[in-house]
Amino acid sequence: MMIRLVKRSDISNRKSMQIRIAAIVLALIVVSVFLAILKLNPAMVYTTMIQGAFGSPYNVRQTIINAIPLLISALGVSIAFKMKFWNIGGEGQIMMGAFGAALVALKFPDMSKPILLIIMLISAIVFGGIWAFIPSFFRVNWKTNETITTLMMNYIALKFITYLQYGPWKDKAALGFPKIPNFSDNATLPEVFGIHIGWIIAIIIAILVYIYLNHTKKGYEISVIGESENTAIYSGINIKRTALGALFLSGAICGVAGFIQASAVSHTLSVEITGGAGNTAIIVAWLANLNAIAMIVVSVLFAALLTGASFIQTAFGIPQSAALILQSTILFFVLGSEFFIRFKVKLASKGKKAEEVA
Questions:
Q1: Angle at the Cα of 122 (from 60 to 183), degrees rounded to 5?
Q2: Contact 275, 67 (CB under 8 A)
Q3: Which of 81, 256, 293, 299 minimizes the number of CB atoms within 10 Å of its CB?
Q4: Rounded to an integer, what distance in angstroms lies between the CA atom of residue 4 and that of residue 356?
Q5: Helix ranges (DSSP H) in 216-291
Q6: CA distance 204 to 3
Q7: What whole-number distance in Å separates Cα of residue 118 and Cα of residue 113?
Q8: How are beta strands 191-192 and 2-7 bridged, if at all?
Q9: Three-state DSSP class for 61?
Q10: Tens of pLDDT along 79-126?
């Protein structure tokens, strides 16, 4: 008896939805067993998670605030992924975007608020874009492994911000505590409906990225390069120029997430500025199948999972490790479902035709 994996040529939306629902049900069953071991009522825990994410206006706002950096970062890395360039450097690009915003905010604290915020945004875009451009330049010209180089750029950014936090940018008024001074009010994004306007920026970026990838010449060229570089060459596409431009844009969008987090959430620059959004955004982008509009829904649901898990940690007094197990188990099954959406599993014995399992 042999197991064969056959790539699906096509799958209906109904079938893919059935697979995803089955994965979620299995995840809930497995987590229920774990909760029972902890002597907790699974139904009560799940209900409390939902309440923790959406049970009050405050909780809804927190979920949306958590979803904003996930959405923007996912949109950024999705442009690179569309071209089969594995940008694992979202964390570093967010940090450098936040650095670019802080550089302006701390240098010109008394500048007019609209002008200051615009310059901060531009600076964040430039620094985030450059941080993605560097590894892409090596990839395009010397075929270096972008997974490794973008990942290493994360650590360089982290150590650079750490140096600033403990060194030249250390707040002298913080009584020796290693922190960078807070931004002035002029450098803080305003709120709309009780949430900073980052949610509006995120939606606008999602729409623009969708249009860019699906309804523009450059978006078409990115897709062609991702499918086959030989086809792109045959079609007359300038691969180097298109790739470098797209990858700068990928980092620039992640840099916008850094600007928002620094200006509207942290009100300063720190090594914790990303909150892991750059890494989680990779998962969000793939779960949404690199669809910019779908990423809006996926990022909100993922943020709800994170917010709800944190809430039950307090509500039931369970340790943080247990809350993380809940998150990771659900995520594992959901990601696993993507495998069965892309592949069929068949069993075959000698002399007999393969039998489809899933």
A1: 60
A2: no
A3: 293
A4: 9
A5: 217-227, 229-234, 239-260, 277-287
A6: 46
A7: 9
A8: unpaired
A9: helix
A10: 999 999 999 999 999 999 999 999 999 999 999 999 999 999 999 999
